[in-house]
Amino acid sequence: MEGEAFFRVVIPPEGVANPDIDLDIFLFDPNGEEYASSTNGGTDEQIDVTLPENGTWTLYVHGWQTAGPSADFTMYWWTISATPGGNLSVDAAPDMAELATSGTVEYSWAGAPAEWNLGAISHAGAEGEEDAALLGLTLINVDNRP
Hints:
Jelly Rolls; mainly beta; 2 domains
């Protein structure tokens, strides 16, 4: 990964045909260190990484319990760039945000495919200010799967 703000990998329960199959996932950072794992009972696995280190990450899928020597599965993954862009647009938002308060942000997603989509609205300090760096993300999850 290079210049990403967020990474997510998921194997949802419906990602395996047989509900008795139990798959787990293990994610290792570019230094070969285990960063995170998801070892829920059954298959319902998710790992999130905020501001992932640049480099090659390695993901292992472990068949804790399978119906034989292998198991078919569907895995989803998303990377969200640290640079704004894409087809998720903020249509209306407050001019400023304040910690520990809430506000309404209206957004639209043009051309979202008939799949599971993950996007983000980034929050940063004002341009030209010392704290103009990325302060956080609000994740937008749209599931258009049939």
